[in-house]
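Ticket #4471: structure export looks truncated?
Reporter: QA, pipeline team
Priority: medium

Steps to reproduce: submit the single chain below to the structure queue and open the exported record.
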Amino acid sequence: MTAGRAFGRGIAWGNRTGLVLLGLILLAAGAAALLCGLGLFGANAARAPLLPGAVSAFAASTSWFWPAVAAAGAVVGAIGLGWLIAQFRLDRLDRVRLEAGPSGVTEIGGRQAGETLAGQVSAYEGVRSARASLRGKPDAPALDLRVTSQDPAHPDTLITRLHDEALPDLRTALGLERLPALIRLRFDPGGRTREVH
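Actual output as written to the record:
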């Protein structure tokens, strides 16, 4: 299983893109309706009913129609906002399961494990900063590591050190035989990114 599949990045990216596009379309439609009501498209357009004749007559004959529409819109908006926020969380792990058996379960904080690895990598020569997080399932985590290097001329030394030292150290600490990883190298200056699977 590749790191990209482990994180479900294609699906998450598609969800986020679809939600953003839908939001932009609805925002544009709402803005157009508001501008029409304010008379920007002419007085006749501003006075025209928003709904078709039968629906407009029904809405005018009841006192609950528009409050019900507003309540439904608020519920749909809240659900959409929650879904959008959830897409950016990317299943970050709070706990990583180290061991499970009849005597109990041993876990470690996912954030602490990521911070420890980031601290180790940040101490490497030429590394400006590092951020690491564990994602996926508690008993089958995957690593997302972002490293900013000061030296774009020699990335191979850093990549080798990450693969030969940092990742095996984390796997050993967590007691895992395998740990899918996505490593993103950013070189500063230049802002170029190289992904290593």
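Status: closed, not a bug. The export was complete when the record was re-opened. Leaving a note from the reviewer for reference: The chain has a mean pLDDT of 77.
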